[in-house]
Amino acid sequence: QEQLVESGGGLVQPGGSLRLSCVASGFSLNSWYMAWVRQAPGKGPEWVSATDTGGHSTRYADSVKGRFTISRDNAKNTVYLQMNSLQPEDTALYYCARVAKITGWGNPVPQFEYDYRGQGTQVTVSS
What we know:
Blueprint: E1 3-7, E2 10-12, E3 18-25, E4 34-39, E5 46-51, E6 58-60, E7 68-73, E8 78-83, E9 92-103, E10 111-117, E11 121-125
C-alpha cells in the first residue's frame, strides 16, 4: 500500500527556516517525479516545487524561487523541502505528492496530476 508521510513542520518566526521531509512506503521513490504542494486556510492547493526521478532537474513556483530547495534521497525513499527566509504568506499545510502525469516539464510552470499524497505537515510563520 502506497503511503507518504510528511514531517518537519512547525511554528517559525519570519526569516526563519524549516526542513520538511516526506517518507514514502509501499513503492520505490526512484521511479517517480515528486512534488510539494501547499494549501493555506481558505485557499486552494498551490504547487510549490517538483523534482525529477534523480533529483537532477527541479522546478519551483515563482513565490518560493530562491528561498526553497527540493531534494531527494532515493536510498532513504525520502523527499525534502528546505525552506529559508520564511514569510507569513508561506503559512499553509504542506504535503508531498507522487506525480502521475506531467505536462510541460520544460515550461516555467509545469502542470501535474497526482495519484498519491500525504496528510501534510503544518507550517506557521508568525512573530
